[in-house]
Amino acid sequence: MVLITRKTLGTLDQVVDDKSTGLKMYVVKTDDKHYTVLYQGSTDFNKEGGKQDWLENDAPMAGAILSKTKMATPQLKKAASVLQEVMDKHKGASFDVYGHSLGSMCAQYAITNVKDTNRIRGAYMYEGPNIYSTLTSRQRVNTAKLAGRAHNYVDCKDSVALGYSDHNGTVGNIHMVKSPVDG
Question: Which of 4, 110, 149, 171 is the residue whose CA sits 20 to 30 A from 120?
Answer without folding.
Answer: 4
